[in-house]
Design brief:
Blueprint (H helix, E strand, L loop, with lengths): L16 E7 L4 E3 L10 E2 L4 E4 L4 E4 L2 E3 L10 E3 L11 E5 L2 E9 L2 E4 L13 E5 L13 E3 L3 E2 L11 E3 L1 E7 L10 H7 L3 E3 L1
Parallel strand pairs: 2-5, 15-16
Antiparallel strand pairs: 1-15, 2-14, 3-13, 4-5, 4-12, 6-11, 7-10, 8-9, 8-11, 9-10, 12-15
Length: 194
């Protein structure tokens, strides 16, 4: 038996998890009706919430890439997010706004930003309604491996089974989506962010 080299170059990715102490045996089922039509996969390191009905929800966050002054309705954001139209995005001053348009690097909200605007680097998150600052979902676990959401023809897959980690250490700077301070607090007893 001999070693045969078939490829001379390639990409090696840093692992999201530095240490996995405990996962959920048998995996979980991710709720699939919350993904934009352009989403083909959810990446390892995505934060998840146990919806309690056997279906788990993806926690959505986005980072602002340019200051947005009060009165503005369009936010420049990092393109790596899962937000879609008609969801609610926390902006500032204990207030959220409904999303009316999404492009790869912008999110447009229904009403102008309140006094103070939003600063570059702010991590915004999904809420349930306009009049709240509370995140829609609390973080309960982290997706272990990248999982396809759509088939080759773009059809949304159902019964999306995935492995999740409930105790371990993650490399925060390579997580696919940004993590809020509250999500870190939710996971403090079980997940270490390095």
């Amino acid at each position: 038996m001999s070693l045969q080299v078939n490829k001379e170059s390639g990409v090696v990715y840093d692992p999201v998890f530095l240490k996995i102490i405990e996962d959920i045996q048998g995996g979980i089922t991710v709720k699939t009706d919350r993904f934009p039509t352009t989403t083909k996969e959810i990446k390892a390191g995505t934060l998840l919430n146990d919806g309690g009905s056997g279906l788990w929800n993806v926690i959505k966050t986005v980072k602002v890439t340019a200051d947005a002054a009060s009165g503005e309705t369009i936010l420049a954001v990092n393109s790596n997010h899962l937000f879609k139209i008609d969801e609610y995005l926390y902006t500032n001053l204990e207030h959220a706004e409904k999303i009316v348009a999404v492009t790869p690097n912008t999110i447009e909200i229904a009403a102008a930003l309140a006094t103070g605007g939003v600063a570059t680097g702010a991590v915004l998150y999904e809420t349930a309604t306009v009049a709240t600052a509370t995140a829609l979902y609390d973080a309960d676990a982290i997706l272990e491996d990248t999982v396809e959401v759509r088939d080759g023809e773009g059809n949304l897959l159902e019964n999306l089974f995935a492995g999740v980690v409930v105790r371990g250490t993650v490399k925060e700077n390579i997580l696919p989506y940004f993590v809020t301070d509250q999500a870190k607090l939710d996971l403090t007893a079980r997940i270490r962010f390095a």
